[in-house]
């Protein structure tokens, strides 16, 4: 597949263009070159011409529709005792979703069994995006996941790609969630307290920040006092206690004096609106109020799946051969 085909897919699926003049403009190519990409995609049954539509001056404009319903992706994340998945088409429309509970500490086997079943049942799935709670590098190797011993240290992305013969993206949970909320002109931090200890995703100008050792956002290691870190405090104190609020303040202030983000999100199940107000008031006693990031709620599960779906669609655009994988 050529770069021009990838960019043409992006024009259809992400930028929502549907005419040759518009696509020619975004590709910055000649009309014949843009027309050739369209013809190739029609021949490969990725797009189809729609009925002519009269435009100003009475000249009909040819429009095209991407056959997104024929190409699907899978977004799936794994937690300690359950997994949740979303099957979607490459325009982002929902095909199926489910939450599956399990009673096993062998997360690797649970994941492989589930993926095998889903791919057998849905052969139109072209790409997979898998989210895990752990430090993950850019190759999809899990560098640090102590709560998932059967996944810790594994080159999971490479293993799954070779096993299932299709592109797989493996990503950290918070990097994925913040991707769904990231903006091109803002710095965004997404904090989740969760069942595996606190973690954060960081995005600057729409780009996820991983750090030199892929450890950015491991906020449980922020010091709290001489003997404890923030993760230990949150694990041993009741929600809404003084130490609990103080631990969250340490997180907010740590980001405020380093990245000074535009916004810090907390998942709604972790911190209420009243809790966010209390945190703002508490932090403002130690940091200028007008320089504090906005604190607001996020829907973590939805953002997590949305971020994974974005990765799955991006993988389809960039990696899947013209016409899609054979079924």
From TrEMBL:
UniProt cross-references to InterPro entries, sorted A to Z: ATPase_NBD, ROK
Pfam families attached to this UniProt entry: ROK
Family per similarity comment: Belongs to the ROK (NagC/XylR) family.
Protein name listed in UniProt: ROK family protein
